[in-house]
Model the fold of this input.
Amino acid sequence: MVWNNSFQTYQFTANNIHSLEQLNALSQLRRIENLTVDGEGNPVTQLTMWKPYIVFRLAHFNVKTINGLEVGLSYLTGQVGKYCLLEEISVGTWKLSI
Done:
């Protein structure tokens, strides 16, 4: 599959996206301004943390909307801070200081 990296808006309807790991793949794109992941056919939307997590994972894109709702700077900053430590732990760059 060849990705057209010039798109700015992505809409996923009934793609059976069921895990946060699958959403991570979106970070491989070059640009995302608007993202829609429809609840019908995408079980990941049943997780309460999917939107904050995707804001964190796509922070480098400065996403403007998710499911039609504006992503403000204060919301973006809060999610990056919340998930940054989790990312450091998961990739093994976090060190416990005693």
